[in-house]
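#onboarding

Welcome to the new folks! Below is a worked example of what a typical request in this channel looks like: someone posts a single protein sequence, and someone else replies with the predicted structure as tokens. Don't worry about understanding the tokens yet, we'll cover that in week two.

Example request:
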Amino acid sequence: MKHLKIFVAALLLFTAGTPAMADNEPDNDNKENYEEIDNYDFIYDNEDYGEDMQFSQIDDMLDEAFSHLGARYRRGMSGPNAFDCSGFTSYVFKNMGIELNRSSRAQYTQGEAVSKDELRTGDLVFFTGSSTRGPIGHVGIVVDVDPISGSFNFIHASTTGVRVSNSKERYYSRRYVGARRVLQ
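Example response:
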């Protein structure tokens, strides 16, 4: 026991005179853990928009759409502070100089039909309303597409307000009808 006490005392004396090793771990206490993104260029990875389509038009459209994120839902409203789904899409496109019909069903007749595997940013996506078998009752704007899973994020005016949702969410995956390309 006497030897153990001597060993511990010697160890303490030895370590007390040794400088502490530098902590190589970064100090994250005062750093933000996220980066705010206010430019949507990251979503255009190698997408073909045709000769007439310019990235600035897509940027402008997304800037307009995202500027209303969180806006209230009000049936029959088309902005700028409250929207229903087709009011939101028609408002965003109108600010791009493109007139869309006022209802989601009528918007489904505009532009050209696009298959799900050809979706790109800016396309309109359509869903049935509250019934999975009913007519078209909802519309949103594609924000980005995951080429691996085939899912896409879209911005739309839902009953909780303007928000971004994913096509894999059960509610939307069961109600997806099709897509239209208005921006050429």
